Amino acid sequence: MVSTILSASHLHKEYGSGNTRVVAVDDVSMEIATGELVLIMGPSGSGKTTLLSMLGGILTPSSGRILLAGLDISSMNEAQLPAIRAAKVGFIFQAFNLLDALSARDNILLPAHLMPGGIKAAAPRADDLIRRLGIEKRQHALPGTLSGGEKQRVAIARALINQPPLILADEPTGNLDSQSGLEVMMVLRDIARDEGRAVILVTHDPRVEAIADRILWLEDGVLRDRREEQHQWLNCPVCRMKIDTWNAKIRHRAGQRELVFCTEQCKQKFIQQPERYMPAE
Q1: What is the number of other CB atoms lying within 10 angstroms of the CB of residue 196?
Q2: Which residues of 73-165 form beta strands (DSSP E)?
Q3: Which of 71-80, 188-197, 226-235 is the least confident region?
Q4: Radius of gyration in angstroms for the set of CA atoms belonging to the chain, rounded to a whole number
């Protein structure tokens, strides 16, 4: 059953006053549902990180309301918010933010210290996430020996360990090559949908658009509609993921049709069995 995880109404955030007053976020409203992955895109300095920080309870809005899993976090004080963040929000950062002295598995389990049952209760879930993210052979390695893609998979598992309803990711592909970036984001998308979590992803990276359910454009602190005439949305013939053809990179001509695919793997599946996936005329 689809339900609303996050509801933000008329969010406003400003800093300073008088001649030094800066409006970072201006009257932003949105709703995010379970299983949904939403991109927030826009130029540098447009207010994306400020908005994400308010949605995650790190910053308090100057005005407006944020309901997270039915809780009004915009009215909570600093003493109340850490427990909410630990239980309700998983954060994924561009710089990974892993602790160098801890193994990959211990980094994943670290947030569980804040939850009832602690590490012992969370251990089976950590094992499951490690399997699903394909890092079993690297779970005891220190972060300094991991590749960028492996570090981001550890960071995703850490964000999911407490089973939060909301995942917030700030430029998660910024330090990854194209293939690694798409792979880890598809893993995040699949886990979020399988477990009914909502994902909000802030990025400049157009490569990530292929996995999104929705794209919101933030500019000068205001959410704006993207130019519809530039974007045509089609489904990948293999996995049916929605693809923005304006940014699609993976293409294949079948007869008189040019098809677009979300990943190279889907393209190869199509080439092997075109009759199975060929869309009807």
Answers
A1: 15
A2: 89-93
A3: 226-235
A4: 20
